[in-house]
Design goal:
This protein is α/β, with parallel strands linked by helices. It is built from 13 helices and twelve strands. The longest helix has 20 residues. 51% of the residues are buried.
Length: 411
């Protein structure tokens, strides 16, 4: 166990700022034909990182999780193999394929600066980019887009959902799209609306933009399937059709030569206080739906997948031990995922703190050892070319202690 912790620590340290070998390899050595695309998926509700990326090699893990614990790969209820200590939940078959293809990096024992356990405040910190809830009214991704080069792009990013999330609010020009729940308009009605708005520049522009966005997203303006899973079906599963619709829309925008280079959307249902399940059950069903959506995203992006990085994050983790209702309560550190053709993957990055009673944060949670902002800084600089000085000064203010990770994307 001690050797594993040390090895993982060295893995992390080699990627941190100051890793001269990796830094020298990254120094502006990319091709001019590179067209980076970035997808941010916010997993609202606090993902159970210990169930999603199981540390089956930790001697204390099985006792904390009981019969919900995932076993070693190859065993009954076993995890999918990663690197010999951690394993993926068996519902994440596509992500495991990406790991084998070196297109997935897993981060563990990771957290934002937030140390309380309120969903509302935790999500605010996750999105505003500061160390405190409600300290900023704009989002880190919007501020990053304002400072990233965006030649020929009218809008730098698109938010897929009924509301613009905080992470995308700010000075940079961004757009939004949401699946219509109305029946499709016929050509005659569209013609009448066009004529009606013809003498109003603002309304005419808005109508044209809306029609263009629907055409790009492939929605047809009448699919009516809704957005990401809002309520589970009778079996507790997030319907895959909703996931498929939004990732197809995201791919439609990102494939455009001069369209948005960033897409953001939410997933919900990760607040598993009761009947979470182990290899099967409520959490497994939601993970399987998300995994299938990621496979669809890769398929829909086609060649653009090679320039794409997808980051999946949540506001905080869950308790190390199972509670009395066979679920988990709000915790602290968790796991995150970076997947895509642009990712330098095939790794688990974690300075693993252990799960002994003495190692747990406040005696109950996985202790945080990796700052989410370190991941975000490294990714935004390497993948979207956001200047380092702007990351420190504007995008993530007061974050000097969170040194950026290097080598997260392919050179």
């Amino acid at each position: 166990m001690a050797r594993m912790q040390r090895r993982e620590f060295l893995n992390l340290s080699a990627l941190a700022a100051g890793g001269t070998l990796l830094a020298s390899r990254l120094a502006f050595g990319r091709s001019d034909t590179r067209k980076p695309r970035f997808v941010l998926i916010i997993m609202r509700g606090a993902l159970d990182g210990l169930a999603t990326v199981a540390p089956y090699g930790d001697r204390d893990y099985a006792a904390l999780r009981g019969d919900l614990a995932l076993r070693a790969p190859g065993e009954r209820n076993g995890a999918l193999p990663l690197e010999g200590f951690f394993g993926l939940h068996p519902a994440l078959a596509f992500l495991q394929q990406c790991y084998a293809a070196r297109e997935l990096t897993v981060f563990h024992a990771l957290a934002s600066p937030y140390r309380e356990r309120s969903h509302f405040d935790g999500q605010d910190v996750l999105e505003n980019g500061s160390a405190r809830a409600h300290a900023l009214t704009t989002g880190w991704l919007n501020r990053a887009l304002e400072r990233a080069p965006a030649p020929g792009q009218r809008e730098a990013g698109v938010a897929l959902g009924q509301n613009m999330p905080l992470v995308m609010r700010g000075p940079a020009a961004v757009t939004s799209w949401s699946a219509s729940k109305l029946t499709a308009l016929d050509e005659d009605t569209l013609g009448r609306l066009t004529d009606l708005y013809a003498n109003d520049a603002l309304l005419a522009t808005r109508l044209a933009d809306a029609l263009a966005a629907d055409a790009i997203a492939g929605d047809g303006a009448g699919s009516g399937a809704g957005m990401m899973p809002d309520a589970p079906d009778k079996n507790g599963q997030a319907p895959r059709a909703r996931y498929a619709q939004v990732v197809r829309a995201a791919a439609g925008f990102l494939r455009q030569e001069s369209g948005p280079k960033v897409a953001v959307f939410d997933t919900t249902g990760w607040d598993t206080h009761a009947n979470e399940g182990g290899a099967q059950g409520q959490l497994a069903a939601r993970l399987a739906s998300l995994d299938a959506a990621l496979a669809t995203l890769k398929q829909e992006l086609g060649a653009t997948w090679g320039d794409t990085a997808v980051l999946m994050v949540t506001e905080f983790g869950r308790t190390a031990a199972i509670n009395g209702t066979r679920g988990t309560d709000h915790g602290t550190a968790t796991a995150a995922f970076l997947v895509g053709g642009a990712v330098a993957g095939g790794r688990v990055i974690a300075d693993w703190p252990g799960l002994s009673a003495r190692a747990l944060y406040e005696g109950r949670d996985l202790a945080p050892t990796l700052d989410l902002r370190s991941v975000l800084k490294g990714l935004l600089h390497e993948h979207l070319s956001v200047p380092s000085r702007e990351l420190e000064r504007t995008v993530f203010p007061d974050s000097a202690a969170a040194q950026p990770l290097r080598g997260l994307v392919r050179t």
